[in-house]
Amino acid sequence: MLSGAKGRVVVAMSGGVDSSMAAAILKEEGYEVIGLTMHLWDVASNDSYEGHPLQGSQRNSGSCCSPGDLRDARRVADQIGIPHYVVNLRKAFEEEVVEYFVEEYLKARTPNPCVRCNERIKFGFLLKKAEEVGARALATGHYARIILDRLRNRYLLLRGQDRNKDQSYFLFSMTQDQMTKVLFPLGERSKVEIRQQAIKLGLRAAHKKESQEICFIPDHDYRRFVEMRKGKEISRPGEIVDRQGKVLGLHRGLYSYTIGQRRGLRIAAPQPHYVLALEAEKNRVVAGVKEELTAQGLVAGGLNWISFPRLEGEMEALVQIRYRHPGAPAVLSPMNQKDGEGKVQVVFKSPQKSVTPGQAVVFYRGDEVLGGGWIEKAF
Questions:
Q1: Is residue 222 part of a domain?
Q2: Got the DSSP string for 188-224?
């Protein structure tokens, strides 16, 4: 097949093995491939790290958008013989992801910046860039699948075949229009297969470790990051109480805590205590023993349905409340307008631990992603 016979495709190249192999696979299949790498964040030059050991260093090389990753992506593009460009999306990333992250913590919610980045940056700004260069699609290294269901006349989002690497949870916000323009070349493959193919091709990224942290907070210190962005005056100490309101101790500011957290509570008690809830209105942390961590259900908003335009009535689904959560059987019910338009109530068949406001909740039927939203409260 002649080079480029299938049309032009842009691949979002992060410098890692997955996006590198996505580019290599598509070129082998006969596409004209262009590699685009997003320049999103510089730890070394960011004001949030002024006076911090990370400033002026390359210690962020394990993140997904470090200078080292940009170089790795370019080297891989040279190896497989495709053009490569860097797209500066720092301003958009700052406004759409970093500010969202900080503001969610200040609202006593635990954000998920990876979902937000996919929604606003990768399948928003970068997809537009791909269209501007005449590409028929944007491809990424996600382990997920998109198929067209002709009977329903809708595109469906499915889990990746490799359940250990499935990333459909992070993609629930995709629209029908976006799914017509996105390719996931790794969706039918396993991570082991992809790494073996990368080794066989001699790609520099073949043995590269996977990014495990949030790219703009490589030292994992979320509390310090929020304080550096907003100033330490945002810290409002308050009470740590149990479910009955009994004072157990004092907290350092609600943004320092998340549901299920055990360390850092500094409570003198015969049993370990965990964060059960954050009460922003009362500036209180509610804590209790492990058995109190479970919730019967949740309310979610900011919904996006993929398999159908909207939820018309009660439906059973497997509900995933965080990335590594195995999913729990539950009943979904649309909430009427007086309770909140565009929201859904989820009642679990069995209580679930650490239901966390601010996190994504995704609804499945088998491998199919029905849709998802954002957890507003647990009950």
A1: no
A2: TS-HHHHHHHHHHHT-GGGGPPPP-S-TT-TT--HHH
229 lies in some domain: no
Q: Which domain holds residue 141?
A: 8-207
Question: Interior CA angle at 259 toward 257 and 265, to 5°?
Answer: 45
What ranges make up the beta strands (E) of the chain? 8-12, 32-39, 84-88, 137-139, 144-149, 154-159, 182-183, 238-241, 247-251, 274-279, 284-288, 294-305, 315-320, 328-334, 344-353, 360-365, 368-378
Q: What pLDDT is attached to residue 225?
A: 95
Positive/negative CA dihedral, 126, 63, 360, 315: positive
* 202 and 351 belong to one structural domain: no
CA atoms lying within 13 Å on the CB side of residue 210: 8
What is d(CA 179, CA 137) in angstroms, rounded to the nearest whole number? Answer: 9
Mean pLDDT across the stretch 245-266? 94
Which of 39-48, 235-244, 290-299 is least confident?
39-48
Half-sphere exposure (CA, 13 Å, Cβ side) for 243? 9
CATH number at residue 146: 3.40.50.620
* Secondary structure element (H or E) that encloses residue 100, with its range: helix 99-106
d(Cα 326, Cα 280) in Å, to the nearest integer?
29
Question: Of the candidates 191, 207, 223, which is a domain's last residue?
Answer: 207
Residues sharing a CB contact under 8 Å with residue 203, sequence separation 6 or more, in sequence order: 17, 20, 21, 24, 76, 79, 80
Q: What is the pTM of this model?
A: 0.92
**What local confidence, expressed as pLDDT, does residue 43 receive?**
60
Residues 257 and 280 in one domain: yes
Residues catalogued as catalytic = 117, 215
| Co-location of 86 and 115 in the same domain | yes
Residue 102 lies in a domain: yes
Question: Are the CB atoms for 159 and 144 separated by under 8 Å?
Answer: yes
Rounded CA-CA distance 310/296 in Å is 24
Same domain, 139 and 12: yes
